[in-house]
Amino acid sequence: MKKLLIRVGASKDFYGAFAVEYNGIWASGKTVAECKENVEQAISLIKSELPVDQWPEILKDEYEIVWQYDVQSLLQFYSKYFTNTALQRMTGIHHKQLWNYLHGVSTPRAAAKQKIEDAFHKLGAELMSIKL
What we know:
By secondary structure, the chain is of the alpha+beta class. The protein has helices at residues 32-49, 71-78, 84-91, 95-102, 110-128; strands at 2-10, 15-19, 26-29, 63-69.
């Protein structure tokens, strides 16, 4: 199955998303959930309103949507669940620096991005292993 990579980014007022490798697939929303829903609606509109020969190639076969966040949008989305101090414990990045990333004051370098991604993946793996 092919993967449709959708990049999600944050701004002051909304979240925006677009297909990285295909033109014409994009949407926005006030929340990440609304943005994702609007991307899926945009895909549905493409399929219902355009002839198949005008669809992006990936939509003609089976595909899976993969959501890729920029650091700012990821931190904004999860700020309702984690404080910057908690994220500091998870990532090893100082909470004031995380605040800067969250508010778009600075952009993390590749090593900091990797620390953040690794911390979230580790947390996800730990959560997936829980049995009650």
